[in-house]
Amino acid sequence: MASQEDVFKKLIAHCKEYGFVFPSSEIYDGLGAVYDYGQNGVELKNNIKKYWWDSMVLLNENVVGIDAAIFMHPTTWKASGHVDAFNDPLIDNKDSKKRYRADVLIEDLLAKYDDKMSKEVEKAAKRFGASFDEAVFRSTNERVLENQAKRDEIHTRFVKALNDSDLAELKAIIEDYEVVCPISGTRNWTDVRQFNLMFSTEMGSTAEGAMKIYLRPETAQGIFVNFLNVQKTGRMKIPFGIAQIGKAFRNEIVARQFIFRMREFEQMEMQFFVRPGEEMKWFEHWKAFRLKWHKALGLGDQKYRFHDHDKLAHYANAATDIEFEMPFGFKEVEGIHSRTDFDLSSHEKFSGKNIKYFDPEINQSYVPYVIETSIGVDRTFLSIMAASYKEETLEGGDSRVVLTLPPVLAPVKACVMPLVKKDGLPEIAREIINDLKFDFKCAYDEKDSIGKRYRRQDAVGTPFCITVDHQTPEDKSVTIRHRDSMLQERVAIADLHKIIGDAVNMKNLFKKILA
């Protein structure tokens, strides 16, 4: 069986070969950690965004959307804490000249101990078969206990160092546990230092009159500075939410793992404003709602888990991540945070404007508390592609690569194919497309054998292939082939719209979320 690393390499190659993701400005050898979405990628991405947007603003009548500018007044970022505190702890290996995030090196070290323990459990499970009790084994096996103790010791030191922003201690952990550079294999490290992740630029026509501004590192602040605008013009009553999809920019030093960590990326964020004291109730509500949103896609419930934060951001009183099992382990795709009243209070202080909400029910003015749900479009895209990529061996020794994308998100919903390029079959195929194209993204393909055409559509995840053959002119029927099962059935042309529509309707997902 191929290793996860090999599968990931194949997935990256597949994304390029089939028009999903290209390296940015590739003819100039690309730009590190920046990617372009191709013709199929942009369709999938837009479908993901629509699924998120509609689940927020259609399913919740107290959630509305905005689209704030990327450029903001620079004091915004002073107020939000990004100018002073938006840093990564970096460390260099003097031999390889490679730069790493110190926290990521330590997280990788912790993951090694987890792997060691899992391997012991796997071996024992094979040995003892059905009578195996994992909990008992983990609490009694010497090797597991030894590794667990070591892991706990590192973890305790790591959490304390993060919370104290103790850079010297982060380096000490790396040295004490003999972490080596993956490239040089040596332990010749520099000190750990902080690096601010914001891109800056200048606005203004003359050098003297220019103002230093930043490319936003998150979309949330555009929501906070518009809190009163939306509340007043929409006559919104608390609790209510503001949703936004938009680009954000971070000068990641260690950008890696394809589109998982990029310098220019897209976020889908919703900030939900609540009464102080009610935030934990809403934190739990949005945790449950967001997990249902992910699971409704049917990629496998076991691929998701919650991971509570070791280090809370300076503004938070609760934070958890929804992690997805990527080919390189469980990784964060979405964060749910209870941000308290930090943001609005800070903007009130820095702007000198009153940003309080008057609550008519309790006859009181207050700065609302905020629950944030923040999800990466690119990471969601990657998780869906990774879960959908399959290499299958078929009967007769044939094989295929198929993307079992949720039909509702698939870039192309149906491909219509005339069996041959004559006898009026292409004309009928075109008629079918002209009828379907108002509701569904369709493709037309008349080149090569029908088998090869099926393979091409499997590779881009098209749920339905429709073949027009010599029987079609006689009885107005076609063959429809289902991607995942490869089953073919004869159906009337008149029924195509309903068959495709039922399979790709987002309503099906929304009903699952609300069930």
TrEMBL record:
Gene Ontology CC annotation, any one: microvesicle
PROSITE patterns (UniProt xref): AA_TRNA_LIGASE_II
Catalysis performed (reactions): tRNA(Gly) + glycine + ATP = glycyl-tRNA(Gly) + AMP + diphosphate
Residue ranges constituting the Aminoacyl-transfer RNA synthetases class-II family profile domain according to the UniProt record: 178-411
Binding site for ATP: 250-252, 260-265, 332-333, 376-379
Entry keyword set: Aminoacyl-tRNA synthetase, ATP-binding, Cytoplasm, Ligase, Nucleotide-binding, Protein biosynthesis
Main location as per UniProt: cytoplasm
Keyword Plastid: no
GO MF entries: ATP binding; bis(5'-nucleosyl)-tetraphosphatase (asymmetrical) activity; glycine-tRNA ligase activity
Pfam families in UniProt: HGTP_anticodon, tRNA-synt_2b
EC number: 6.1.1.14
Similarity comment: family membership: Belongs to the class-II aminoacyl-tRNA synthetase family.
Biological role: Catalyzes the attachment of glycine to tRNA(Gly).
The protein's assembly and partners: Homodimer.
UniProt protein name: Glycine--tRNA ligase
